[in-house]
Amino acid sequence: MRCGKGSGSLNSDGKPVRVLIIAGSDSGGGAGIQADIKTVTMLGGHAMTAITAITAQNTLGVDAVHMVPTDMVIDQIASVVSDIGVDAVKIGMIGNAGTAHAVADSLAELSCPIVFDPVMVATSGAVLADADTISAFERLMRLATITTPNLPELEALGGKSALLARHIPLLIKGGHSDDDLIVDELHLAEEQCVSWSDERIATRSTHGTGCTLATAIATGLGQGMDLVPAIERARLFVRLALHDAPGLGQGHGPMGHQSVREDAMVAGPSLNQVTVGCRDYGASVDFYRTLGLQQIVDSPENGYARFEMPNGVTFSVHQHDACSTSTVVYFESKRLDAWVGELLSLGYLFDQMPQDESWGWREARLLDPAGNIVCLYSAGENRRYPAWRI
């Protein structure tokens, strides 16, 4: 079977990264194949599918499940991979033990990254894997580059200690804890751990978070990203999709994949923000609102307002006595500290080294040759979704 390794958003042939998704279909469009396709597409890849089950479900729960015969699942895999090729694989809902073993046999021929999301229970509580199927997951975990269980799935698989003793690389998702702070842990060996923590986003639109995270990681790995940056981008994608959830349905609704802005996902620096000075805060705010900009921050006591364009780029005004010297151009990068280090090694001087600011950004500042203020920063979700967004 054909595999390739990508760079950026393209594979080694200069084409979109090809991600094979082996999972069940969600008729409500919130999780499963539907969430996976949206994720791959928004991240610049080409999604291919091998559907393992057809479900009748919505935001309230799963009403019915129809398993796709194992031979048909394997035929789907063989058909797309033999012709189109594959750069990464994401495995979600498998359905039964026979299909799990057959998928493991099929994927053993591949040499590209594999992300296994051991789907057992839907967000609504519906059971999607029996004991024999869970037992068969062992083979898939051994094939996978990373396995991404949530806390209940981790226990069903035998617990963290048991899996690490069997040298199973794990990304343990903490969303099922009762804490306001969600902690995700990457374990590549017993003594090798990386963790991330973020405040829980208050929303009931959490259907498909696990599917989306695993697929985003697989897409990143297929694009040539290392595992940690791929996870970091995937976590940001999920959080932005939660912020942008459309609020559909009466239960656990779908996330807003379609509203995640490309500027938050790019690998390199991007021009995301310009701040201009003003002397009359109210007049400037009225002017830019009249132009059609959406105001997202209103802080008259600080003389600061921020606006958002339809493409996600932000623009702000800041009351300042010397308007001609108060313009600031902002460039965002996820690798801010490394970027600053590279510029320092080239002899550039900084007025401000990278530091965490009270408004949730990490910033460094320097002057361009003409004396204009340039801010290099990293904000992630806090750029568009600060705590004080109106």
UniProtKB/TrEMBL annotation:
Keyword terms of this UniProt record: Kinase, Transferase
Single biological process term from Gene Ontology: thiamine diphosphate biosynthetic process
Residues annotated as domain VOC: 270-379
CDD domains: HMPP_kinase
Record-listed E.C. numbers: 2.7.1.49
GO function terms (MF aspect): hydroxymethylpyrimidine kinase activity; phosphomethylpyrimidine kinase activity
Bilayer-crossing regions: none
Keyword Coiled coil recorded: no
GO cellular component, one term: cytosol
Name of the protein in its database record: hydroxymethylpyrimidine kinase
Organism encoding this protein: Sphingorhabdus contaminans
Lineage, highest ranks first: Bacteria, Pseudomonadati, Pseudomonadota, Alphaproteobacteria, Sphingomonadales
